[in-house]
């Protein structure tokens, strides 16, 4: 692969590395990464070109891989390693550290139920417990990151419990493909997953219209799915904040309250001990 101009790694030795061979190869499937087609390779180059150091492209590249595979397979790990000149151990370390990268095939939708303290106390634990049996069975409740239905097919759902989803004022919350559904109850959550299973895409409480997990992964990698264009106006016109979240700011505005002015000079910080 010819690295983009301006990339310091472009000064690498002139010999053809395995990475270059892999990426310079014609579009027919490679034995290593058969699912990564010409478009994915072009997108890979585009992502890498955005960073002065190619290894910095790993996080969006993992999202790109996930948009193609529906998870990050061992093949995907190898693909990223080869594209970025990293070892597979380095890529695996990152892919297994961040919970957004899934190591087994996911459903059309990812349902994340917040079971952190506030949501749990207000019903999040009950919602998660009920969805486990509703999507699985009483004898065999669905486990964390397990999928109801054939992964990738319409209506299939991967269920997970999540730590604080940063919407505690709207607890209990859940997300579908990282879009928020606020103030949930056991019944509303069951209704929501039933709608997803029947192929519907209910409107999230806030943010963009619902798509599917792979489309969201592509967006996280920095691309939109040209084959399935979305209504851009709808994407930006959805409510982005909740009344509860901005109540403090509104109260301050109504009452003329302001924060104390920042000091003209930054406060003197105590010296740090010398780094050993
Ligand atoms: S505890 Fe659930 S969003 Fe914070």
TrEMBL record:
Keyword field contains Iron-sulfur: yes
Protein name: NADH-quinone oxidoreductase subunit E
Region spans: Disordered: 1-34
Keyword presence, Chaperone: no
NCBIfam families (alphabetical): PRK07539.1-1
Keywords: Iron, Iron-sulfur, Metal-binding
Lineage: superkingdom: Bacteria
Organism encoding this protein: Pseudonocardia parietis
InterPro entries attached to this UniProt entry: NuoE_dom, NuoE_N, Thioredoxin-like_sf
